[in-house]
Write a structure and sequence with these properties.
The protein is of the alpha/beta class. It folds into two domains: about 1-105, 3-Layer(aba) Sandwich (Rossmann fold); about 110-205, Rossmann fold, CATH 3.40.50. The protein is built from six helices and nine strands; from the N terminus they run E-H-E-H-E-H-E-H-E-H-E-E-H-E-E. A seven-stranded mixed sheet has the order 3-2-1-4-5-6-7, sandwiched between helices. A two-stranded antiparallel ribbon has the order 8-9. Helix 1 (about 10-20) runs parallel beside helix 6 (about 170-190) and helix 5 (about 125-135) crosses helix 6. The longest helix is centred in the C-terminal third of the chain and has 24 residues, at about 170-190.
Length: about 210
C-alpha cells in the first residue's frame, strides 16, 4: 500500500509508522504527510525522514469555496498515488468527498476505549484527564474506520491497559503511547495481508 498520514501534533505515531516501514515490519510505503499545522512535530519528522508533506488549512486558503478546498486534499493524495490513509492525531474532520473516494481505506487511532471518551475535543491529554477524573480502572486504544463524525466509525481493534491509583494523565499517556506505537503498525500489516474484512456489518480481524 502507498500510505498518506494525516497529523496535526507531535507526530509520535507518524514516527512509529515510519520506523516500522524502515525496519521492514510493514511492507507499505509512507510517502506523504498532510497536516493543518505547519509548525507541528509531524512536519519535523517528515523533513528528518525525507517524506513529502503538504500543509492545507483555511489560513492558507481563506477565500476558496468549500468544494475547491476539499479538492485540495484529493489532489494531494492522487498526485502521490495514495491508496490508504492513516490518521495519527489529526484534529479536523475529513470531507465527505474524500471519505467516499477512500471508503474503508481510512483509519484512525484513538487514545481511549471507544465509544467512551471520544468525540469533538477528546484528543491528546484531554482524553487522559477525562479518564483519570472518571475513576475508571481500564483505558486503552481504539483503531477504527473513519466516517463523517468524530470517533464513530466501525471499530477494528482495541487493546486495554490498567489505570492504577498512582496514575495521572501524564503517566497514563505514556502507557497509551506504548500501545499505539506497537499496535498501529500491526493493524497496518493486517490490512496488507487482507486479514481485516466486514462480516455482517462488523469488522473481523483474522
Amino acid at each position: 500500500m502507498n500510505i498518506c498520514v494525516f497529523a496535526s501534533g507531535a507526530g509520535t505515531n507518524f514516527k512509529a509508522l515510519i520506523l516500522s516501514e524502515r525496519r521492514k515490519k510493514i511492507k507499505s510505503g509512507i510517502s506523504l504527510l498532510i497536516t493543518n499545522n505547519s509548525y507541528c512535530g509531524a512536519v519535523q519528522t517528515a523533513v528528518k525522514y525525507g517524506i513529502k508533506f503538504k500543509v492545507i488549512n483555511r489560513t492558507l486558503y481563506p477565500d476558496i469555496s468549500e468544494e475547491t478546498y476539499d479538492n485540495l486534499f484529493l489532489s494531494a493524495v492522487k498526485e502521490q498515488g495514495i491508496d490508504f490513509i492513516l490518521l495519527a492525531g489529526y484534529m479536523k474532520l475529513l470531507s465527505v468527498k474524500l471519505l467516499k473516494v477512500f471508503r474503508h481505506r481510512i483509519i484512525n487511532i484513538h487514545p481511549a476505549l471507544l465509544p467512551s471518551f471520544g468525540g469533538k475535543g477528546m484528543y491528546g491529554i484531554n482524553v487522559h484527564k477525562a479518564v483519570i477524573e472518571s475513576g475508571v480502572k481500564v483505558s486503552g486504544i481504539t483503531i477504527h474506520f473513519v466516517d463523517e463524525k468524530y470517533d464513530e466509525g466501525k471499530i477494528i481493534f482495541q487493546k486495554c491497559c490498567a489505570v492504577s491509583e498512582e496514575d495521572d494523565e501524564f503517566s497514563l499517556m505514556q502507557k497509551i503511547k506504548k500501545l499505539e506505537h506497537k499496535y498501529y503498525p500491526e493493524i497496518v500489516r493486517k490490512f496488507e495481508e487482507k486479514k481485516i474484512v466486514f462480516l455482517k456489518n462488523k469488522v473481523v480481524v483474522y
